[in-house]
Amino acid sequence: MQHDVKRMGHVLREARKAKGMTQAALAKETHTALRTIIAIENEKRFPTYEVFNGLSVCLTCRLIKSSGRKGLSSRRNRSN
Total domain count for the chain? Predict the structure, then answer.
């Protein structure tokens, strides 16, 4: 679980930055507390399903399984 939390924080930060969004803007757009976004990015907590879903929709990403690992992948890079 610790590895998943670290990966999630890193993936979220990179996806947010790629969209040119601040943590505050992401929090506002997803109706999520700023402290929650910060905690996820700083690897202090894993998002609930609802928060994760909101983040993935906002950042145009989706949960995928590849090589037995979970991560975020841009929809643009997926054919389906």
Answer: 1
How far apart CA 61 and CA 43 sit, in angstroms, is 19
Domain carrying residue 43: 2-74
Q: Is residue 70 part of a domain?
A: yes
18-55 per-position pLDDT tens digit: 999 999 999 999 999 999 999 999 989 989 999 999 99
Assigned token pair, 39: 């905690």
| Coil vs helix vs strand at 72 | strand
Where does residue 47 rank: exposed (0-12), middle (13-18), buried (19+ CB within 10 A)? buried
Its pTM stands at 0.71
Residue 26 lies in a domain: yes
- The residue length of the chain stands at 80
The answer to whether the beta carbons of residues 71 and 64 sit under 8 Å apart is yes
